[in-house]
Amino acid sequence: MTKRREITGYHEVRAAARDYENYSSNLQGDRDVRDYHQLPLEVDPPRHQLIRRAIQPLFLPKTLEPKIPDFIAMTKKLIAEVNQKLDAGETVEIGNDFALPYVVGCLTVIYNRPQDYDEWLSWGPDVWTAETQGKDEEARVAHRDRNFEGETSRSGVKLQTYLDRVFDEAIANPKDDLWGFISKLEFDGVPITRVEMQGAANVMLAGGRDTVVKLITGMIWHLINSETDRAFLTENPDARNAAIDELLRFLTPLSKMERVPGEYVSIPDKDRDTSKYVLLSFVSANYDKTIWENPEAIDLHRKKQPHMAFGFGPHTCMGMGITEAETRTVLNELLENWPNWKFAEEPDIAWQEEADYKYIDRFRALVISR
């Protein structure tokens, strides 16, 4: 297989992320499991801004702030449940037993869909591997090598079945929840279409799921690993936001994204040679040695420098405020009363090696005990 061209380096990636004419986001991703664009992620300005403005109210600080107490209550509950299991002599896998339930729970709060918690949780960390969740671990994670070519273990059936059901209900009887909100959207005075509903919903359920699970799992991994950093953050609450930024840089939950070279933009999706797509390497930007000293280490005392974990330019992640609020809530609760979690066994981490650095692709298992 011919390796895709990658744009690497801090300044190079930032420049390309701004240059949507030569590096367009107008593409259909996840081609093996869906046949529509995610919105507003997979369209370019000016339509991108039009859709983004319509959806953005869900992610504004004034919308999010009233929900923080629910995040805190959920964190306390999950920590208590983990501690109860540990006190009984059991072990707990942080990704599946803490981070995933927390992220899914936060989504039900943000989207006002508490009735969907069990269904969303059953999909696992990635909606595209929901069909194999809990059945075949090797198949479930096979696609995670980031080759963007699709894998046989992936399927869009569960998500599509769910979206068909909730949008049928929302169109017939819109309620004060995510699907009611989306079903009533207009873009420049034109009512949203059914396909566009799916495109917007797809970002909200498929995006920011496995990435935030990775971030929270990685944060807990580091807190257990480094008693020194844990003590520093406990004694210096004002340093916690910067610590989250450093963890975002180090973990870079979404390492790379596709872009369409300018000469292919006018060609319909179905007729494009996708091997000609390029990858924006956000992780290379976050590990650029000309910007970050010793980038393969977590350093909570770094001089402030904008990271690329949320992308850059017009397509900067809409959900970054939610991600930071979710992570900050867990960090604060753990530090205020550290539960003395320890590794029950060596963490099972999938590292990805590049030419001059390596980074964490995913946590296969982070098993803890007392």
Overview of the structural elements:
The strands form four sheets. Strands 1-7-6-2 form a four-stranded mixed beta sheet. The chain has about 375 residues and is α+β, with helices and mostly antiparallel strands. Strand 9 (about 350-355) and strand 10 form a beta hairpin. It is built from 15 helices and eleven strands. It has a single domain, classed as Orthogonal Bundle (Cytochrome p450), CATH 1.10.630.10.
Brief write-up:
The chain is an alpha+beta fold and 370 residues long. The protein has 15 helices and 11 strands.
Layout of helices and strands:
Layout: E1 5-7, H1 10-18, E2 23-24, H2 47-55, H3 61-64, H4 68-87, E3 92-93, H5 94-110, H6 117-122, H7 137-141, H8 157-172, H9 178-183, E4 186-187, E5 190-191, H10 194-206, H11 210-225, H12 227-235, H13 240-251, E6 256-261, E7 278-281, H14 282-286, H15 320-336, E8 342-343, E9 348-353, E10 358-365, E11 367-369
Parallel strand pairs: 1-7
Antiparallel strand pairs: 2-6, 3-11, 4-5, 6-7, 8-11, 9-10
InterPro entries: Cyt_P450, Cyt_P450_B, Cyt_P450_CS, Cyt_P450_sf
Family: Belongs to the cytochrome P450 family.
GO molecular function: heme binding; iron ion binding; monooxygenase activity; oxidoreductase activity, acting on paired donors, with incorporation or reduction of molecular oxygen
